[in-house]
Give the backbone structure.
Amino acid sequence: MAASGGMPSDIPDVINVGLMGLGVVGTGVATHLLDRGSSLADVAGRSVNLKKVLVRDPALPRDIKLPSGVMTTNAEDILSDPDIHIVVEVMGGTDPAEGYLRQGLAAGKHVVTANKEVMAKSGSELLALARQNDASLLFEASVGGGIPIVGCLMNELAANDIRSIRSIINGTTNYILTRMAHQRTSFQQALGEAQELGYAEADPTNDVEGIDAAYKLTILASLAYRRPFQHADVFCEGISKLEPQDFRYAQELGYSIKFLAIANLEDGAVQLRVYPAFVPAEHMLAKVDGVYNAVEVDGSLCGQVLFHGMGAGREPTTSAVVGDLIEVIRSIGSHATQPGAQDGRSPGNGVDLAVRPIGDLQARYYIRLDVVDHPGVLAQIAQVLGDGQISIAAVLQRDTHPETESAEIVITTHPANEASMQNALKAMAGLDQVRRVSNMIRIEE
Ligand SMILES: NC(=O)c1ccc[n+]([C@@H]2O[C@H](COP(=O)([O-])OP(=O)(O)OC[C@H]3O[C@@H](n4cnc5c(N)ncnc54)[C@H](OP(=O)(O)O)[C@@H]3O)[C@@H](O)[C@H]2O)c1
């Protein structure tokens, strides 16, 4: 380990990296380190050596040929090697990944991770551990793939009080909703297509129920509001209840349906919510289609800033991981960045903001009801809404079926309280003339 000219003697010329995971992202990162080593050295200021790569099954066919002796199935070859300076974790899941991150940080190694689940569940503890051990922990790839939103919230936007974040941060569900909107396919059909194309997993629960988006929102909100949030702080509603009619009505009313992850600060409290929402068709977020992601940040100084790009995939995620790697390498020995202080959750940095429950939300609502096609039904529904202080903005009645005496009624409301709306929905479902409350979707203006 030689020292470079002018550098303290304990600062190495060559930075050794241990890569944990050689799947979609790991292969991209390893390829970049092996193929672009000299240009990476120019940018980072030091040479980078891919010393070890951890995999589960060394017999699997790979898209990459590693130099001999680099691949290992023993995590200790990375975690217990004092010559490995940086651990890059792109394995995913919490176990054993989180334990490896803890072990690496405790040994004073710098860590770069793409793991949203670990950062959402244990980010604060891991960042504290990094600080205690004078190590850096960077996680740009954990949200938004190639979109540099994590670093921007930590650094470039740090002067702002963040009023809100509104985002589309799950490419799988955005692909499904785009297919449902443009092709009018059912949810199941669109999901099947996404699975065939490799955009959705065999078990799509994490994506379609909003769990993945909630992890990412937890990370973004913790950075924006400088206090740790938990997954349980996020109100979460998935997209599986959406039907083709909802997209038809949305278009008729001038909206698109998007799966939004929203954080907003109001009266000293932060509300975190993930749900499908009506977005005005002319709004930028309404135009984000396919597997793309977008994050709109509303800051006190910068105003509204929109980030848009590839939220997943080998190359975009490699961009984020290697970008973090370069940042860590540049900071080694420079003290330009206090380890851990770049994270908004450093002690003393935060304000103790409360979490606002979803029942306090004030929003406009779209309601779709399957009713008995008799005179007076609408009056009964209007009465229920009126009892909850919810005023109607528009009513559409379509799809009457004389043979079954049923009709579909769509109502949009003026801003109303979520708790009142939930009570009204229960009361409507109890009316004899209402066969089904088919859907309720919030309208984000
Ligand atoms: N894919 C994306 O576009 C994307 C985007 C943003 C963030 N991320 C995040 O990046 C991480 C990696 O995602 P990925 O899509 O690259 O995953 P992946 O394709 O499933 O690859 C996972 C890799 O980790 C290895 N691995 C898993 N468990 C292991 C264990 N217990 N011991 C040793 N090796 C183990 C696997 O080894 P084998 O190859 O031997 O099975 C595989 O090489 C996840 O946290 C994910 O959320 C992914």
About this structure: The chain has three domains: 14-145+315-331, 154-310, 361-443. Confidence is low (pLDDT under 50) at residues 1-9, 337-349.
